[in-house]
Sequence to fold (221 residues):
Amino acid sequence: MRDSNLIDLDKVVHHAGGRSILFVERLTLPPGRHGLLLGPSGSGKTTLLHALAGLLVPSQGRLSLLGHDLRAIGDAGRDRLRADHVGIIFQQLHLIHAVSVADNLRLARRLAGKPPDEKGLRQLLTRVGLGDRADASPSDLSQGERQRVAVARALANQPALLLADEPTSALDDANCQAVIDLLLEQAALSGATLLVATHDRRLMSRLPVLLELSKPMERAA
Fold:
């Protein structure tokens, strides 16, 4: 590994639709340092998370994850790195309602090319308070329970980096605190570094702001 940082970004720019939708001058993140990517809607937070996960390649700049240049390793390399080291909790949870809660976790391991781990699966569901709902369909769960399934699924492959996109945006204060408690607790138990993209300034009392993004129109030309 080239350096000790989990994440290392330098002058990252991404264009879409003929305009700049993301600009990051510099961002480094050592393992174990949780934090926030803070900014309003339209500031590029989700784009940055997707770039960190290798789901898109920025138009310009250097982006390194675990010492790997994400631009240089190609699609297959990014897919492998994501499967082995990154867990993602999307704003839209993308659970598969046609299969059980447990099968959602099993599928995450299968897609990553990892062997089944029934013991680990059951332990994860118990940790997030869903040990008795393994055979339920996600459609039979409350929104809070579905979010817990998404957290467990993101941790199913023991990632080094846990990314969460706006996990508290639609929640009242009590549920906001419950979700960030859950994320911090599960990241600690899994040994993962937690990075949350949000416009929710309530989270500033729980996590340090690593980067504050602004809307494109507010950026210097």
About this structure: The CA atoms of residues 34 and 194 lie 5 Å apart. The radius of gyration is 17 Å. The mean pLDDT is 92. The longest strand covers residues 19-29.
